[in-house]
Amino acid sequence: MWAKEYIEELFELEKKILDSQMGKIVKAGEMIAKSIAKGGVLHVFGTGHSHMFSEELFARAGGLIPVNAILEPSLMFQDGVFKCSFLERIPEYAAVILDRYDVRKGEIMMIFSLSGRNAVPIEMCLEAKNRGLYTIAITSLNHAKASPSRHFSGKYLYEIADLVIDNCSKVGDALLEKKGLPGTGRVGATSTITGSMILQSIVVEAVEKLIQYGKEPPLMVCPNIEGGDEHNRKVFSKYKNRLKHL
Fold it and tell me: Which residue ranges does the record assign to the SIS domain (predicted)?
């Protein structure tokens, strides 16, 4: 059963992340907690499938409320897969996107890109750093090191970000290797699963740190439980001018 093999190999990949990336996950949680404790907002960005990570953190039950998802329709698949793939390789597009959002010095920007080789994620990281933000990248070092950068500098996302968390995905993202398959000869993507695991681990760590700092964590609760809407409206009201997509 390929499904069983895939899940078993996925468990091994998650264990690899646990063993090799936990220190960086803890560091990310700490940096985010310090920023939120000072009234800051966490900004999150990705293109293509990676934009789902921005939505994973934004307005998520059990998650942090002060999360500003940078959601650019032209870089999402609902606006056209081939169009999105083309646009994420265009230099200087990131600054145009970021200008539409309220990002402030000392806050945190998280950028998600499996390959870390395309112009827009790289320049989003550069632009955020130029504006005084601390940058965290979640990427695959395996994939990046196997592919040439598409940025004019020749650099990759992992070479620019202040903190890099490796999702440990294989080249091409797919996991289960089988004879007769095209491309890398593998099937079953991993980065969405491992990326969400990494993100929620960071959130949990940030909440722990906020409690240690004596701060009440600005958490969203499920709106489908009694009192959920009231709680969320109260907390969201503190950040309504900072979160563009509310």
Answer: 32-217
Per the CB < 8 A criterion, the answer to whether 166 and 140 are in contact is yes
Q: At what angle do helices 191-212 and 2-37 cross, to 10 degrees?
A: 30
Quote the CA–CA distance of 150 and 116 in Å, as a whole number: 9
Region 2-236: CATH code = 3.40.50.10490
Q: 45-59, 78-92, 165-179, 219-233: lowest mean pLDDT where?
A: 78-92
pLDDT (tens digit, 9 = 90+) per residue, 129-148? 999 999 999 999 998 888 88
Q: Decide if 140 contacts 173 (C-beta within 8 A).
A: yes
Mean residue pLDDT of the chain comes to 92
Asked if 172 and 147 touch (Cβ cutoff 8 Å), the reply is: no
Q: How far apart are CA 103 and CA 44, in angstroms?
A: 11
Better-scored residue on pLDDT, 214 or 91: 214
Query: 186-187 and 176-177 as β-strands: parallel, antiparallel, unpaired?
Result: antiparallel
73-122 pLDDT, tens digit each: 777 777 778 877 777 777 788 999 999 999 999 999 999 999 888 889 99
Question: Full-prediction pTM beyond 0.85?
Answer: yes
